[in-house]
Design a protein that fits this description.
Layout (H helix, E strand, L loop, with lengths): L6 E6 L3 E8 L3 E8 L1 H18 L12 H7 L1 H24 L9 E10 L2 E9 L24 H14 L2 E5 L9 E10 L2 E12 L7 H7 L7 E5 L15 E13 L5 H6 L5 H35 L10 H16 L8 H32 L6 H15 L9 H25 L2
Antiparallel strand pairs: 1-2, 2-3, 3-5, 4-5, 6-10, 7-8, 7-10, 9-10
Length: 433
């Protein structure tokens, strides 16, 4: 997404002429010419204000002749004149152009370049609100997908997982893992001379079709305490695209014999099923709903990508500049720790800065689009939704239970974007049948 090109416009009223120029980062520059009549009116108002403020011997406060006020309090009159002219001119210019500073701190430069009773020249520079275009979905259509279907294998795999969760097993000592054994392992990924944790203490059954083939291949024949390394995935070298798979290191913590939970009344009762037939029906319904939800989220992603590709608008520089620099610097510092980094440092650091800034701008555009959808359709995020999403992240993503100061705006943004895209997706599906 490139920055918005410069755009110039002119606005006129009886009092002022505004030449407005937009620059990248939602920067707005206004050069304003004030007519002699408006300038003189501001001067007369300043004169009257100062007259009311000061007393002069022989006259009641506010009733001294203008000539005396000009002679005795000329500096005060000029200061008041400049203040009145700036305030009224900038207010009228903003209303005329229908463009406003994003916050009070977004006004960067205010300057009265010339002022006399023959007219005035003023300059104003500020950061405006982003101008998010109206959303038009007439040309949007969802990609055609296949009908949702739950296969027999998916049902069998789900039943296996259920029986696996309730399996009973007994650790064995000083024996290699054999077909049917249950093996507890830790795993970490090796990538570019660095290690990254994958999981700890997970149990897999040797030879089960539900065990990933690459894990099954590595753990077979190992004893408790043994380790093994191998490619992650089903390829042993490079796939047909030339991609080299990352390496995983597995450590066996425990080897056990055991049995899956039997398919009997006790198991059915534990999961609220009357018999095997109703259990399979429940599982099929659950898998179908999961696929429906997944397909809906795919449609939400299609909607989001369509809007990001079609709605071209600039974002305020202050919303991304500082964070973008910090994030890019972290990646550049990491680049310096790589072997031979000096050779391509200039090129790669420039790529990092551009990539981080582009990604941050895209994320901001995503939020601003969602914000517009929410505003136009009266969508809100309440405290209960924030609380529930926080709990979900704690349970499923391992986030800290205690919220910090950054969690609420992050959660708010996340929920708002999901709500906005879900709203547009549901409405579009309903309208297009």
């Amino acid at each position: 997404m490139t920055d918005q090109a410069q755009e110039s416009k002119e606005f006129r009223s009886d009092n002022i002429v505004v030449k407005m120029r937009r620059e990248p980062g939602c920067t707005v520059i206004m050069e304003i010419t004030v007519t002699p009549i408006a300038t003189q009116a501001a001067y007369q108002k300043a004169l009257k204000n100062v007259n009311k403020e000061f007393s002069y011997p022989g006259f009641r406060k506010g009733h001294a002749p203008p000539q005396i006020i000009e002679q005795k309090f000329g500096n005060h009159v000029n200061d008041e004149w400049r203040n009145i002219l700036a305030k009224t001119t900038f207010s009228e210019a903003l209303d005329l152009a229908k463009v406003f500073p994003r916050t009070e701190k977004s006004v960067w430069n205010v300057d009265i370049r010339q002022i006399s009773k023959d007219g005035a020249e003023l300059y104003l520079e500020f950061e405006s609100h982003p101008d998010v275009p109206e959303i038009d979905l007439k040309e949007f259509s969802f990609a055609t997908g296949q009908a949702i279907e739950v296969t027999d294998k998916e049902i069998e795999d789900a039943i296996y997982e259920l029986r696996f969760e309730k399996a009973t097993y007994q650790p064995v000592d000083d024996r290699e893992a054999q077909e049917g054994d249950f093996v507890m392992i830790d795993a970490e990924m090796l990538h570019e001379n660095k290690t990254y944790p994958m999981f700890k203490g997970r149990v897999f059954q040797v030879g089960a079709s539900q065990t990933p083939p690459w894990i099954d291949r590595l753990i077979k024949g190992l004893k408790a305490g043994d380790s093994a390394e191998g490619e992650i995935g089903d390829c042993t070298a490079e796939d047909h695209t030339g991609h080299v798979h990352d390496i995983a290191r597995l450590k066996v913590l425990e080897v056990s014999t055991g049995e899956l939970a039997p398919m009997n009344e006790e198991l059915f009762k534990q999961v609220g099923a009357e018999n095997e037939e109703t259990l399979r029906a429940q599982i099929k319904n659950r898998l179908f709903r999961q696929k429906e939800e997944w397909e809906f989220r795919q449609k939400m992603t299609q909607m989001e990508n369509f809007l990001l590709d079609r709605l071209h608008f600039d974002v305020p520089k202050s919303m991304y500049e500082s964070s973008s620099k910090k994030m890019a610097q972290k990646q550049i510092d990491a680049l310096k720790r790589e072997q031979g980094w000096e050779e391509t440092f200039v090129e790669k650091s420039a790529e990092i800065k551009n990539s981080v800034e582009d990604e941050m701008k895209r994320a901001l555009r995503r939020f601003l689009i969602a914000q517009k959808v929410a505003h136009d359709n009266n969508l809100h995020v309440n405290e209960q939704e924030l609380h529930l999403e926080h709990i979900r992240e704690v349970v499923l993503e391992g986030r800290p239970e205690k919220m910090d100061e950054n969690d609420i705006p992050r959660l708010y943004s996340k929920i708002l974007q999901n709500k906005a895209m879900a709203f547009l997706t549901e409405n579009t599906l309903r309208m297009k049948g």
